[in-house]
Automatic annotation (TrEMBL):
Domain Haemolysin activator HlyB C-terminal residue range list: 227-456
Protein name: POTRA domain protein, ShlB-type
Domain ShlB POTRA: 166-221
Signal peptide region: 1-34
Parts forming coiled coils: 37-70
Annotated GO MF terms: protein transmembrane transporter activity
Length: 463
């Protein structure tokens, strides 16, 4: 009886040692194989960075096309009037009547100080008048002008009055209901407003964002004095575009032989909007992993098999085949509203990879899903530059797995404020961008409360 108890006791001790040894080996495996987790996160971050770079490149290209399509008016060359000064007078005061405030206080000061308390004649007066009109043209007020009143010239007083040019009618094609709808969404100004060529540039930008549009606009005189008509015409050629592409972006496992299919539908709602969809990926390579035993199904003391045959050795039996899958899809909808532009987008990426360690192979997988809303507005533009402000909110979920073990599952909400400044430089176009991003708690975004110092922060600030 004592002998049987002794055998049971030794058997229990042996099983305990086996369990402890198994736990130790598993712990060593986790420590040594921390690299697969890092590899999984690295692959996921790399894929997201590539998608973000593609999005930024597309935005930069759109901004480049917009500013290149602007009507960059050449500098006005002031030609002095070749006329002899018969009579001169001392200019004591230059009054400028500007009810619509087309000229800034700085413009008025520069005009006033040029000849103030100086003897001037007809030649200098014409030069000053030309300079005043040139300022209006450079500001985009191409149909406004300056009238001069010299009734009090003997007392040394001259009055400049700004005669404002306004919009009478805005016409698009035949002015049908569809044309009026597009005009309502894309024109920055309405009838009766001051006419500024920069607003017409914005209207042109909104139409030319869609490749199928061939937009042209003219300014014609109206029957009303001081008013002009904006006559525009748009020819549409091919509203739907299907594209097929092939590339080798990415790494050897997930980027080789990548096929891309895209569909662009221009003006689906008839307001010069755009719906764009594309999907790209690498054909999934299925491999036999039936020999693997999930961690949850391992018996006490059982060691997971390293290959499809007992005692598997890659030097003898050959390397196990890696699995491979990359799938990326994106859908974007853009709608303009005068000087505003709203862009809604969603994208999802899925990947499967494999990594070799010791005498076995481990499978990595992950996914990332994001939804983004971006609202931009043209804050300022002139004949050689444009300033755009934007506000964006993004909801992002990222997951990564090592075999069937979840490594990360993060929900982030990121708010961004930014400005883009595009300008003509020499014979090209250049740009500057400044942005501020902050992790937020809305839409179930992660909180940093009770997180360790080394844990990734969700409410981080970036510039």
């Amino acid at each position: 009886m004592e002998f049987e108890n002794l055998i049971k006791l030794k058997k229990g001790v042996l099983m305990k040692k086996i369990k402890n040894l198994s736990f130790f080996l598993l712990l060593c495996s986790v420590v040594v194989n921390a690299a697969p987790k890092d590899e999984a996160n690295r692959l996921l971050d790399k894929e997201q960075q590539r998608l973000e770079q593609e999005r930024q490149l597309n935005e930069q290209e759109n901004r480049r096309k917009e500013i290149e399509s602007s009507k960059f008016a050449p500098d006005i060359e002031i030609k002095p009037v070749e006329e002899e000064n018969v009579t001169t007078f001392l200019l004591k005061d230059l009054q400028i009547i500007d009810k619509d405030k087309l000229l800034s206080e700085g413009d008025k000061f520069q005009l006033s100080k040029k000849y103030k308390y100086k003897e001037i004649g007809v030649k200098e007066l014409n030069i000053l008048l030309n300079e005043a009109n040139a300022i209006l043209v450079k500001k985009g007020y191409v149909t406004s002008r300056i009238n001069v009143n010299t009734d009090n010239i003997q007392q040394g007083e001259i009055t400049f009055e700004v005669i404002t040019g306004r919009i009478d009618k805005i016409k698009l094609n035949d002015n049908s209901f569809a044309d009026k709808l597009k005009k309502f969404f894309n024109k920055p100004k309405t009838e009766g407003n001051v006419l500024n060529i920069r607003d017409i540039d914005t209207m042109t930008d909104n139409f030319n964002k869609n490749a199928s549009n061939n937009f042209a606009v003219n300014i014609e005189p109206s029957d009303k004095e001081g008013f002009s008509n904006i006559i525009s015409k748009n020819e549409i050629k091919g509203k739907t575009t299907v594209s097929v592409g092939y590339n080798n972006y990415g790494d050897e496992q997930g980027g080789k032989n990548r096929l891309k299919i895209g569909l662009d539908i221009e003006s689906p709602l008839g307001v010069n909007d755009l719906l764009s969809m594309n999907i790209q990926g690498v054909k999934r390579k299925k491999v036999d992993r039936s020999w693997k035993i999930p961690e949850s199904q391992l018996l006490p003391g059982q060691i997971a098999p390293s290959g499809p045959v007992p005692g598997y050795d890659p030097k003898i039996h050959g390397l196990l085949p890696p699995q491979r899958q990359t799938l990326l899809w994106n859908i974007t909808y853009r709608i303009p509203f005068r000087s505003y532009s709203l862009v809604l987008s969603g994208n999802k990426s899925i990947y499967r990879r494999s990594t070799y360690a010791y005498n076995t192979i481990y499978d990595l997988s992950g996914s990332s899903t994001s939804l983004t809303a971006n609202l931009s507005k043209i804050l300022y533009r002139d004949n050689k530059s444009k300033l755009t402000g934007n506000i964006e909110i993004k909801r992002k979920n990222s997951k990564s797995y090592f075999e069937d073990v979840e490594l990360t599952n993060r929900n982030l909400t990121i708010g961004t404020l930014g400005v883009n400044y595009d300008f003509a430089l020499f014979k090209g176009v250049s740009g500057l961008s400044v942005s501020y991003s902050k992790g937020m708690r809305i839409f179930h975004g992660e909180k940093d409360i009770e997180k360790g110092e080394t844990a990734p922060k969700a409410e981080a600030t970036r510039y």
